[in-house]
């Protein structure tokens, strides 16, 4: 019988790194995707994912698995990822000039097709990020959690540490503003 | 129109996943459960392949006068940097460099990313309680790098090679007089870096700090000709004597601060230079710190504004 997230969280809280490893196995891909959509870079997303789970270890006393959809640790991990990625995005802006001067790190034995897909997806995500740039950061986070990552309003509220009503209102506002922005962009 | 419902997604490759998991396990398996939380990152730092390194402070300059070098190994060769991995990960505890080795490694890897500094060598260094300042030399100029920030556990605990190479390059060209042996106010410009006393708490809010800050004030460069001593008198009343060697000089002060930076000093910083013949010369630094266009403090990183 598979150990539930709630049980893993209890083990994690007691100091079990193996429980953290199991949570990593289960949720790393979703966190990785979420971080990519927040940072628009696969390379940064990979590092961000490592940071999220290291931060989860540091903050294991506050680990939580929520019960509304079968005791998932994801809302808690998404909450950490939101903060990590928010900080990374700020760092990206700060270090933009430096990035341009540095040699691009190699990604190991990627095949050409895979590299092409990664570049294409980064380009698409970058375009989406540009179109969403006018939204407040907290509205973008709600879209990333609810619309892109499939969290319920309740889970998103748990991840962000805000009331459910706040999630609803942020999402409604974001959709309205985004729609207008996109319409304007198409017209231009 | 963008498609909000289907932005690109992806999965970690098996290789990425295995590497990340191994790093995660290495970083967490032996973390003492009774240790203070903010000490854990130091242990993590050593086992994870790299660090964020958002704060190796340094100063660049263009080629100046003669370049004396010592027998210190070339920067970035890795010859004196212990490996953080073993051939049998998971079976043998990885060799972990100490804080001093990590700091040197950070500076080495920062400097070699700068144009013209690929083969830079450490000409001299000054160690103090909390860090070491290195003077690098290459055919293109000199570079000052200080590892104080890397010694702070809160900032020193994660990331893989890619992130390190992407955002770690520390420095700046905020002072171009590091290699200048002449005496002028410009060459005594101070660079400051600030660190919260407690780590960022990403699980709560990335901007949340439980404690105050410590701020480092740093100045240095190639030793000026005929100078025996250099002292800084700050508006706070603090007087700091610089360390002057045959090769370099360095002034460092680390003090608590409320805001994280020293700003808004109404009185100038006064630098007193004592020459070998006993005579002195004073320089007033009315604007001792660099600032950005919007008036905020320029941090001591690459792209500080």
Overall pLDDT confidence of chain B? 64
Number of strands of chain B: 12
Largest sheet of chain A: none
Low-confidence stretches of chain A: 95-108, 181-188
Question: What's the Cα radius of gyration of chain A?
Answer: 18 Å
The class by helix and strand makeup of chain B works out as: alpha+beta
Entry summary:
Chain A has 188 residues and is an all-alpha fold. Chain A has helices at 5-13, 17-39, 42-58, 74-94, 96-101, 112-131, 137-148, 153-160, 164-187. Chain A has nine helices and no strands.
Structure description:
The complex is a heterodimer of chains A (188) and B (305). In chain A, helix 8 packs across helix 9 (164-187). Mean pLDDT of chain A is 79; it is low at 95-108 and 181-188. Chain A has helices at 5-13, 17-39, 42-58, 74-94, 96-101, 112-131, 137-148, 153-160, 164-187. Helix content of chain A is 74%, strand content 0%. Chain B has 305 residues and is an alpha+beta fold. Chain B is 14% helix and 25% strand. The longest helix of chain B has 15 residues, at 14-28.
What's the topology here?
The complex is a heterodimer of chains A (188) and B (305).
Chain A: H1 5-13, H2 17-39, H3 42-58, H4 74-94, H5 96-101, H6 112-131, H7 137-148, H8 153-160, H9 164-187
Helix pairs in contact in A: 1-2, 2-3, 2-4, 3-4, 4-8, 7-9, 8-9
Chain B: H1 14-28, H2 40-47, E1 57-60, H3 99-111, E2 121-128, E3 131-138, E4 141-146, H4 161-167, E5 191-196, E6 213-222, E7 227-233, E8 239-241, E9 243-244, E10 248-257, E11 269-275, E12 280-285
Antiparallel strand pairs in B: 1-4, 2-3, 3-4, 5-6, 6-10, 7-8, 7-11, 9-10, 11-12
Helix pairs in contact in B: 1-2
